[in-house]
Amino acid sequence: MMLEANIDDMNPEIYGYVMEKAFKLGALDVFMTPIIMKKNRPGIKLSVLCEQEKQEELEKLVLTETTTLGLRKYEVDRTILKRQSVKLKTKYGVVSMKLGYMGGKPVKLAPEFEECREIAEGFGIPIPQVYEDLVYAAKKYFEAIQEK
Amino acid sequence: MMLEANIDDMNPEIYGYVMEKAFKLGALDVFMTPIIMKKNRPGIKLSVLCEQEKQEELEKLVLTETTTLGLRKYEVDRTILKRQSVKLKTKYGVVSMKLGYMGGKPVKLAPEFEECREIAEGFGIPIPQVYEDLVYAAKKYFEAIQEK
Amino acid sequence: MMLEANIDDMNPEIYGYVMEKAFKLGALDVFMTPIIMKKNRPGIKLSVLCEQEKQEELEKLVLTETTTLGLRKYEVDRTILKRQSVKLKTKYGVVSMKLGYMGGKPVKLAPEFEECREIAEGFGIPIPQVYEDLVYAAKKYFEAIQEK
Amino acid sequence: MMLEANIDDMNPEIYGYVMEKAFKLGALDVFMTPIIMKKNRPGIKLSVLCEQEKQEELEKLVLTETTTLGLRKYEVDRTILKRQSVKLKTKYGVVSMKLGYMGGKPVKLAPEFEECREIAEGFGIPIPQVYEDLVYAAKKYFEAIQEK
Amino acid sequence: MMLEANIDDMNPEIYGYVMEKAFKLGALDVFMTPIIMKKNRPGIKLSVLCEQEKQEELEKLVLTETTTLGLRKYEVDRTILKRQSVKLKTKYGVVSMKLGYMGGKPVKLAPEFEECREIAEGFGIPIPQVYEDLVYAAKKYFEAIQEK
Amino acid sequence: MMLEANIDDMNPEIYGYVMEKAFKLGALDVFMTPIIMKKNRPGIKLSVLCEQEKQEELEKLVLTETTTLGLRKYEVDRTILKRQSVKLKTKYGVVSMKLGYMGGKPVKLAPEFEECREIAEGFGIPIPQVYEDLVYAAKKYFEAIQEK
Q: Which residues on E lie below 8 Å from C45 (Cβ)?
């Protein structure tokens, strides 16, 4: 389900908190879109994607933790690549990567960003360089598993 | 129903007029989202939310009063808190508030913004202060009715 | 002068009121830009363009009528086409047009939007058609004055 | 069908390429919406509108040519004005116009933008003027066919 | 100084990290604006506001930790309300508030958002309610100090 | 110089053309920012960055090729990494890379996107993979030249 609420009367400091709470309750995704509402009001469309069994709880969250008096919702289907988390040995140590499969074949491999961040901080290296290094490590591993 | 049209060839001065007309025809909500369309065109997604019985008239409005040659639409459900308008005596006189109920219990109370604006103009007081004063009056009333 | 304040803790209903007040105090332009601030806060950059002699009053407005605790400012120069308002006889009656000159020559002529709106409402004609009709009337007049 | 993917980990240079490819594969529309995702990430919602028979191919495109590991989708209906391309003789030569019908009656006529662009470049005339000239030519032709 | 870089070729996951680092190095403010760049690229303008003595270090940060090959910068003046942090006793315990003065007089008082968040989590109360409660406590204290 | 115009009355199809023309005339950068103007108008701030000797010509372009009746401008300084274009042999053939130096040392190397696009099209390979392959080739070359 996709739940959406247009909000034009809430202190924006609150959004970060609501997003976190929605993720904790099991939302699949939470995001905000800047919109323009009546009377020159710069509003936010808050979107919460979830499985049907989480819908009730997440609706309640949106209606309780924001100022909105209502929300709308519609069903969406999803196409999700089969995913796997793999551990890879890199020059920075063992790092987690997310691996995506399409039609049984591995097609994507990307570093977990939070680990890039930790490495950048720990080693004092610019983060784009860390990211590239891990993409490179991923790439080599990826080519190996694709060949199989 | 949610009606949506991506518009990339219209003088933006026209949107305010179209929004007003849509509200007059009974739209539940009307809003605009900045989008990026092909060929570097900064477009606008115009969204009109309405009951099914208003759909035909509002489709006609969008197709007549904007430059678009088509629109898309999909059904949405809504969860709406039961609302009530209450009059509250405040230090600025009697003011309207919107009150929202969840599960039969009052859970939200907020001042009508247009009345904040009139008070701010009439009394010559900064609007954030007026708003806070009314939230405060609402809060006290709200606590009283919650206790019952 | 350009005055700018990043605001992430204000009820968005308030912006329309502040914009109007700024224009009344003599601002040359007032606009809002959606921005992304720290901690996932969807903020608004409020921009007020004004002559230097209005700066003090407009700074005070921003600091009083919004929640911000500060603003920044920098000088901007402007290149403005010489403008004139001309009255034109059209099939809808006499209409105001804004005329722009570059290097002494008329180069632009456009209808005043508020009059388009009134005509559309009064005559019950779609606004894009009214706008086009007025652009057409403007165009004919414009060609005549350019030839002189 | 509307296909949507929220993307927060892709080099933005890639979007233009993906859009073009999607149009080539038969997408009815492709557009991007700036969104705000978790952890202060400025993401992009990529939207691809298509007929059901193109869905599978376009899903594959999005999953292959972007970094996303999934997408969501929902059915949308469309109301499309009957369209026709007409050739019009103008002072710049013969130009294509798109004509829209509502209820059997012609209601809209607009120049094809790419031809405006070519004329502006070829004749060395400001493009707003070319556009207005073509709107004017369209308008005259349009009034003629409406009277019939 | 205001430092600005338009970035169209960086993984958006990186921005949150760069913002944090910029704040740690002493930036006064850091924010992102969605922009549209050539070739249909949805870019981000990264803005870093800082005192002149921090400029060099922050320039280096932007040039090192992002993919940009350059940045632009201009001087801005600032008007900042004199601020004070005050501790207030509320029904949730002692809470920090930020107090702003204009012309020697207290004109603004707002709760520190992070403490609202902690209270909401700790007490299990909806955050808009906590926020309102603290605004209310602030308001009462504020009226008391204004009267003096 | 930074030239800026807020535009709220122009057909958005025109922007792509104006951007291209501005780049041809020597603009250093051209970009658009979605803004919210008075009367609920979703406008665009058009920004043109240029050297002072190009300013007059680019001002004229903005005033001629858009509907604006004025623009504002302010000086900006720039910090630009020394850049070099290098040719690299990759498995897809010889490819151009942009190389950036800070303090005499090479610090950045990135593929020219247009060549990624050509390779993706020519070889029929997903563009993220091409991009990664070229980043990898760049990275190896880069490490070699850094070691010197």
A: 31, 33
